[in-house]
Amino acid sequence: MASAHDFTFTTIDNKPLDMKSFAGKPVLVVNVASYCGFTPQYTDLEKLHETYGPKGLVVLGVPSNDFGAQEPRTEPEIAKFCETMYGVKFPLTSKQKVIGPDAHALYQWIAQEAGEGAAPKWNFHKYLIGKDGSLQGAWPSRVRPGSNEITGAIEKAL
Questions:
Q1: pLDDT band at residue 116, thresholds of 50, 70 and 90?
Q2: What is the per-residue pLDDT across 97-112, written as a single tens digit (0 to 9) for each?
Q3: Is the per-residue pLDDT at 1 higher than 70?
Q4: What is the longest distance spanned by two Cα atoms in the chain?
Q5: Which residue of 7, 123, 146, 156 has the fewest CB atoms within a 10 Å radius of its CB?
Q6: Model's pTM, two decimal places?
Q7: Range of the domain at 75
Q8: How many CB atoms lie within 10 A of CB 18?
């Protein structure tokens, strides 16, 4: 696999999601969870979606229960929570493993591209995929989506 565009997901409402459909657009991929201290970052992610979405950015939330079992909900419950509590309108995938040998193929590719140390260490780890499908940046959970570090990288990628 040569780029992030070579992977597919299933959306939270069980439809195919081909990363190729995002070719020509930067994508901020974030593993998310409902019961995490970082969960309020959904607000910041939605703001990025509203601000930069019209310019081409795709924010993609990937629910995962890998860290602290902080996403035990089903996909319909996750979707309702995100919409009701945070007004999330950006796309969400079905629940995925993001670490270890059973991690989704995109996350395995990221670890191969950037080294095992680049794998998420907790919920709300962020990866910026460039328009060409290359890995452009990675930020740990503590770096807020609206930080200058991330918005600067997004603006450059746009």
A1: confident
A2: 999 999 999 999 999 8
A3: no
A4: 37
A5: 156
A6: 0.96
A7: 4-16+25-157
A8: 12
